[in-house]
Design a protein that fits this description.
Helix 6 runs parallel beside helix 8, helix 12 packs across helix 14 and helix 12 packs parallel to helix 15. The mean pLDDT is 97. 32% of the residues lie in helices and 17% in strands. The relative contact order is 0.13. By secondary structure, it is α/β, with parallel strands linked by helices. The radius of gyration is 22 Å and the shape is globular.
Length: 470
């Protein structure tokens, strides 16, 4: 029977979490899961102390260390005093407030957006926040997940609620089967390349269509992870059997009868027939190709065989100026493909592409081969469980034998706060999510790509279409 008032998945989750709503004001939204890390939480805890407040619901918060932790040998002492201090502060704050912490000694330590799903803490229908812009990752489970600022971290700790303006809804539909060599990372880069870095501003995006339904949960997380790069407040994919199978039996997932009840409720979350979005765009999966970025934001993305856009051919003066500036920083000539351009570093990791399926894909390309002697290759698993699994499957041996550096779990070169960074002028093919000026190190130049493309570039030492190697 069709719903009398059909609603999108976003509308169902939002409306069920509104605690109070004044007309023409932001809604007070209840938060189910709060994820914290060592960089954006110290000021929030200090704010609580200054106001004489306590964490309202410690069981709703999960902490880890990831941004500033070194990815080198964990048996060695941390030499960066700032990193040591931030890690110690988080440990003390969590101990004082009874918050679950996965520090360097934890078997579950890892990138916050990797371990939330691994623990089963991320679940369909939840509202999830974190002091990190890539919190949209958790939307892959049919959750409403978004990043918040430090003052908002404090507010959630104190109240378990947050004032939020209701975003509009946007559908991104991709139908069909992805061609060989085309991955979830290529799909989201193609989406952002089309809509631009502001195309999703003020919207919560729901990804629909057969291409997303066919993706694993890890691939869906890659897609939702980069929603913020298109300006969106959140990215979401409706839960299904793949979601439930992923969560079943995980430490924080419901158990027994509670599991059965949860799954029954989760099956009601997908949008109703006839529900309308404020905006919709569609793609044909068969027309997609491996993607790569050429500029200084993720919207500057092209198929890997396509020429770099020429600002002289642009009519919009603002876009023309932005492209000239980006190409000047990147020292890239317009009008020619990036294929064959020498590179210096390959980074396989980050909350976008550090999961076991990403490592398997890269290892498939590298197995039995050697990376170019001119290229440094860092492979950084997203969590300690992923690291152990990769080692058990022999993937770590594949990387080491190919000449890659096999690292400990952490954000690593994605954000370059931990010693893993580019030298000025170096080019990196990176599986991370941002190619901003200096993001991977002052003066560093980042080309975003999939793990398949990154591994192909590592072998040849130049920008390479992985389809020529498959």
């Amino acid at each position: 029977m069709a719903a009398t008032n059909p609603r999108t998945m976003f509308e169902k989750i939002w409306e069920s979490h509104v605690v109070f709503q004044e007309p023409d004001c932001p809604a007070l939204l209840y938060i189910d899961l709060h994820l914290i890390h060592e960089v954006t939480s110290p000021q929030a805890f200090q704010g609580l102390r200054e106001k004489g407040l306590k964490v309202r619901q410690p069981s709703k918060t999960v902490a880890t260390v990831d941004h500033i932790v070194p990815t080198t040998d964990r048996s060695l002492p941390i030499t960066d005093p700032q990193a040591s201090e931030l890690i110690a502060q988080l440990r003390g704050n969590c101990r004082e407030n009874g918050i679950e912490l996965h520090g360097l000694e934890s078997r579950h330590q890892g990138i916050v957006h990797v371990i939330g799903p691994e623990l089963g803490a991320t679940q369909p229908g939840m509202t999830v926040v974190c002091g990190d812009s890539h919190t949209a990752t958790h939307g892959a489970f049919g959750a409403l997940a978004f990043g918040v600022g430090t003052s908002e971290v404090e507010h959630v700790l104190a109240t378990q609620c947050l004032l939020q303006n209701r975003p509009r809804t946007m559908e991104v539909r991709v139908e069909g089967t992805l061609p060989p060599g085309v991955t979830a990372k290529d799909v989201i880069l193609a989406v952002i390349g089309r809509i631009g870095v502001g195309g999703g501003t003020g919207h919560a995006i729901e990804y629909t269509g057969s291409a997303f339904r066919a993706m694993s949960m890890e691939e869906r997380m890659t897609v939702c992870n980069m929603s913020i790069e298109g300006g969106a407040r959140a990215g979401m994919i409706a839960p299904d059997d793949a979601t439930f199978n992923f969560l079943c039996g995980r430490p924080r997932a419901p158990q027994g009868e509670a599991w059965d009840a949860a799954v029954a409720a989760w099956r009601c979350l997908p949008g109703d027939e006839g529900a309308r979005y404020d905006r919709s765009i569609a793609f044909d999966a068969a027309q997609l190709e491996p993607m790569i970025t050429y500029g200084t934001n993720p919207g500057m993305a092209i198929p890997i065989t396509a020429p770099v856009p020429d600002p002289a051919r642009m009519e919009d003066a603002v876009r023309q100026s932005a492209l000239r500036k980006a190409l000047g920083y990147m020292a890239i000539e317009p009008g020619k493909p990036l294929l064959g351009r020498p590179i210096d570093v390959v980074f396989i990791g980050s909350c976008t592409n550090s999961r076991i399926s990403d490592l398997r894909a890269a290892a498939k390309v590298l197995r039995g081969k050697k990376v170019s002697p001119k290229v440094r290759v860092l492979v950084v698993p997203g969590s300690q469980p992923i690291k152990r699994q990769a080692e058990a499957e022999g993937l770590a041996d594949v990387f080491r034998q190919a000449g890659c550096e096999w690292r400990e779990a952490g954000c690593s070169m994605c954000i370059a706060m931990n010693g893993d960074m580019l030298a000025p002028g170096q080019y990196s093919v990176s599986t991370s999510n941002r190619n901003f000026e200096g993001r991977q190190g002052p003066g560093g130049r980042t080309l975003l790509a999939s793990p398949l493309t990154a591994a192909a570039c590592a072998l040849t030492g130049v920008v390479t279409d992985v389809r020529t190697l498959l």
